[in-house]
């Protein structure tokens, strides 16, 4: 793994925790729901493809949301979400494998496992349709990508700049996410996606991540080339409010290209 000296303290702590976590004994065999078909259905329905994230908390969020993850996911799908992302990192994000299992049983759309997967054994913790690999933190990206695919996972490879994009493409990534959040200062800049997107081949599915809060942000990322958008805080940061807010927040983003009000 590349040096972590330039990372924010909270990110270094997350990586340390991830390195200490064990994996599962049995190798998974996943029958995934197709992300590509889900994106195509959203486009055909006139919806912006949004991957809505069930995220109880994070180092960049205030408070904790204690709602049932499966119920939240159902409300997001009712609001038009194309897929659901579930945090399974327990220490800093309040996630769990059980939450992902519950969500995947409750919805019929693809479910992304979002975590800091650093080695092959980490892949076997829980079944999902899509698994996240962060290019910067994986020593052998091609090897871990192949291991994930051998289990049946579709793989979202996350990058932050053009150098990481080249690493992802060389490893054979077919779905790439560009994270707008800088991991040193934890600041968000949508220009990050705009600077990387022009260099992504047309046959790669491209996802914009982080910092997408408003319909205007959605339109901006789509105009820059995003096939889909991963949104967490703009939907989830309403601790103590009702699930109906989650549905409305999701719909506000999924209709950003058609709703002129």
From TrEMBL:
The protein's Enzyme Commission number: 4.1.1.48
Keywords from the UniProt entry: Amino-acid biosynthesis, Aromatic amino acid biosynthesis, Decarboxylase, Lyase, Tryptophan biosynthesis
SUPFAM superfamilies: Ribulose-phoshate binding barrel (SSF51366)
Catalytic activity: 1-(2-carboxyphenylamino)-1-deoxy-D-ribulose 5-phosphate + H(+) = (1S,2R)-1-C-(indol-3-yl)glycerol 3-phosphate + CO2 + H2O
Pfam families, A to Z: IGPS
Region (Disordered): 241-261
CDD domains named among the record's database cross-references: IGPS (cd00331)
Pathway membership: Amino-acid biosynthesis; L-tryptophan biosynthesis; L-tryptophan from chorismate: step 4/5
GO biological process, one term: L-tryptophan biosynthetic process
PANTHER family per the UniProt record, alphabetical: INDOLE-3-GLYCEROL-PHOSPHATE SYNTHASE (PTHR22854:SF2), TRYPTOPHAN BIOSYNTHESIS PROTEIN (PTHR22854)
Family: Belongs to the TrpC family.
HAMAP family found in the cross-reference section: IGPS_A
Protein's recorded name: Indole-3-glycerol phosphate synthase
